[in-house]
Amino acid sequence: MDDIRARAAAKALPLNSQHISRRATVFNRFFAAIYGGAILALFYYHVASLLKPTSLGSFFVSVSLFISDIILAFMWVNAQSFRMNPLHRREYPGNLKELLKKDSDFPALDVFICTADPYKEPPINVVNTALSVMAYDYPTCKISVYVSDDGGSAMTLFAFMEAARFAAEWLPFCRENDVVDRNPAAFFVSNKDWNTRTDKMKEMYEKMKIKVENVLKKAKVGEELVNGEEERMVLDKWTNSFTPQHHPTVIHVLSENSKNADITGESLPNLIYVSRQKSKTSRHHFKAGALNTLLRVSATMTNAPIILTLDCDMYSNDPQTPARVLCYLLDAKLATHLGYVQFPQHFHGVSKNDIYGGELKRPYIINPPGMDGLLGPDYFGTGCFFVRRIFFGGPFSFQSPELSELSPNHVVGKPIKSPQILELAHRVAGCDYETNTQWGYKLGFKYGSVVEDFFSGYRFQSEGWRSVFCNPNRAAFYGDVPINLPDALNQIKRWAIGLLEVTFSNYSPITFGVRSMGLLMGLSYAHYAFWPLWSIPVAVYAFLPQLALINGAPIFPNVWDPWFLVYAFLFVGAYGQDLVEFVVVGGTFRKWWNDQRMWSVRALSCLLFGTMEFVLKSLGFSNFGFNVTSKVMDPEQSKRYEEELFEFGVFSPMFVPIATVATVNLAGGLIGIWRSCGGSGGGGWEKMLPQMLVVGFAVANCWPVYEAMALRNDGGKVPSKITFLSLFLALLICYFAAFLF
Ligand SMILES: O=c1ccn([C@@H]2O[C@H](COP(=O)(O)OP(=O)(O)O[C@H]3O[C@H](CO)[C@@H](O)[C@H](O)[C@H]3O)[C@@H](O)[C@H]2O)c(=O)[nH]1
Ligand SMILES: [Mn+2]
To answer: Which residues are noted in the entry as UDP-alpha-D-glucose-binding (predicted)?
Structure first.
């Protein structure tokens, strides 16, 4: 790549440009100064009220509010790191034509696709993801797609055998018809121009899909579906003792570009199925382990200098994506430090107003330019192009692997199916290979957190690598969002545990992070690592003002008090700025409203439970793993999701605090209204109004919960056990609160 970089520099062809919005930066800094001043004022107020001698009850209230506000202030400070220097980039793939004249000029690209469970991650969708990248606008002889199957499923392998045959038709079809949607399923949905060729293509696709789905239904690959001796031999590895948790390595080359051609005679990309060896007695480190296996297996076979990591659901939506990446990787100015180019996660099939906040605009779209203005965005786990060198120590501290064949500068001299190569590939995919090696610690993706993406990217950056956020107008990738509440919450619960694993490791962002990357980068990472802390202030604000209101005790300054203005400014300022930033990146008000609701819902459920599980895990009581998010669409659930009804359905302990908060707030609201209409006690509406506002806001946010508890009768309503449990808990809490005020 160096020679091409030199050529690019010599020709002075711009491949990318960057832009810092002065206006946004100045505004953000100015606003941060004012807001910071208001926070200081609030702390003055807190300290003053703590020093006032009062009852034990009100002391407890003041302390709780004070602690909550300290946490909120800490979160606010961390979040400012994203606002100090937001950077936006553009790339000019058109200029590459001058530099890359023939296929051999292009650097090779290894694509890693991870899948882990054929029932939660339908193999046909994994196949579509693979096809969408095999069909990139990129020399096919330079693309190798490696599929990691942690589900160890013959059904997934079978799906890929079919995919390899289908690719021979699909790739030329895309080329000749200028197809942009290169995921076949997406193409057949969006295509408007039907002719005999498209009809034929669709028929072929449907045939493949049905075959794959039938195999899944029967849970085995029938004899009649096997084509030839080679397929027979590999499928025979699935003996009776073969289980997803315990089985030998399976590596199968499905297509090889020097041998297999498509129907027009053009070579096909390499396609390789890898299911690493699993044993119940050795640790396999979930996705990080899978990726490290692919790093090694691909090193023995193709060793491309560029690697794209994809989740199985994350298909390509733009065949020009690798060209955009080259605009950064071939830039001589960036060359020495650039470790990865991250694309945003975009999602398809999101409901109109995104009820579960599944788009996660803040971490995936709003914050990354902020980090790009510093040292670059964090790694999202998918849609990211790495330079292979990043997995071998910092830019100036090369860490060589134990086997020289795994080194990033090793040149593979043999065809991928040669016995020596296959033998080595099997060896490095063995479950004991990593014992007594540096893999997972100094080499490859890092072990120690179930958010291997966040942790690895963070460690790479602290080793001195920089990253770039590439956010073109046409989404580069699309993935799936969870379409029911349990899935949405379980996903974030896993993240919470993984993040806390980082927070409480030797690599905590506020210590190690700040030291190795500077204050603002450290704070950016801390913003995520401390996300679960958010539970505390949300829980306090979800209960305390309401319980005080029920007991007629004012806990905020009354509306005529100037201190009330400070509170009002802090609230409106934070939510207002959040809304503006959300709308600027294309969000709507309704989506924002749902998004902010989900932030509180998560705080009261998955972040809280994640924290508890993290504590149990740290004490050795539980052994939390990587619970894969389901990508299957149940038709009933899909329908309710489209109608934007919250899907509770199953019993989950995480629903209990949500329902309890909803109940207490409703009670608080009703009693508050009754009091201010002249019912007993309270005294002066202006004293209670601030609390009424908090309750009002909470009740508005809880609306879908009330619906699901009392007004709906479909399969997604809150299970009655949860409703009763939360009513009981709410009563209990109100009863004890009466002693406090
Ligand atoms: O033991 C495992 C577990 C998971 N996976 C794969 O990891 C990917 C992500 O899993 P998913 O259940 O979709 O998790 P999400 O929470 O949706 O994923 C986000 O968060 C993960 C970290 O928790 C990152 O790995 C992902 O890239 C990021 O998109 C999927 O392709 C899985 O097949 C494995 O390969 N092996
Ligand atoms: Mn996912």
So the answer is: 120-121, 150
d(CA 216, CA 212): 6
187 CA distance to ligand 1 middle (Å): 25
Regarding the beta carbon of 115 and ligand 1, being less than 6 Å apart is answered yes
What tokens were used for 553? 């005790």
Question: Residues 29-32: contacts with CB within 8 Å, 24+ apart?
Answer: 29/83, 29/84, 31/573, 31/577, 32/80, 32/83, 32/84
Ligand 1 atom closest to the Cα of residue 628 is: 12
Dump pLDDT digits (tens) for 44-58. Answer: 999 999 988 778 888
The one-letter amino acid at 137: D
Q: Compute the average pLDDT of residues 600-607.
A: 98
Between vectors from CA 41 to CA 40 and to CA 45, what angle results, nearest 5°? 115
Q: Which residue bears the tokens 């799936």?
A: 480
Is the CB of 125 within 6 Å of ligand 1?
no
Q: Name the amino acid, one letter, at 47.
A: V
Count Cβ atoms below 10 Å from residue 280 Cβ, excluding itself: 9
What tens digit of pLDDT does each residue of 406-416 get?
999 999 999 99
DSSP letters, 312-331, are TT-EES-TTHHHHHHHHHT-
User: Nearest CA to 301 among 194, 434, 427, 401?
Assistant: 427
Where exactly does CATH 3.90.550.10 map onto the chain?
Answer: 103-484
pLDDT over 70 percentage in the chain: 99
**Mean pLDDT of all residues in 11-33:** 94
Q: pTM for the complete prediction?
A: 0.97
- Tell me which of 120, 294, 501, 628 to substitute to probe ligand 1's pocket, judged by most ligand atoms within 8 Å of the beta carbon: 628
340 CB under 6 A from ligand 1? no
Distance of alpha carbon 465 from alpha carbon 621, whole angstroms: 37
Please name the residue whose Cα sits nearest to atom 7 of ligand 1. Answer: 287
Average pLDDT for 503-529: 98
pLDDT for the residue 720: 94
Mean pLDDT is highest, among 4-18, 405-419, 618-632, for 405-419
Check the annotation: does 402 bind a ligand.
no
Q: Extract the tokens encoding 696.
A: 């009002």
Query: For ligand 1, atom 4, which residue shows the shortest CA distance?
Result: 287
Confidence of residue 521 (pLDDT cuts 50, 70, 90): very high
For residue 473 the two structure tokens come to: 């107008």
Neighbours of 57 (CB within 10 A): 15
| Fold designation for 103-484 | Spore Coat Polysaccharide Biosynthesis Protein SpsA; Chain A (3.90.550)
- DSSP of 157-185, one letter per residue? HHHHHHHHHHHHHHHHHHHHTT-S--SHH
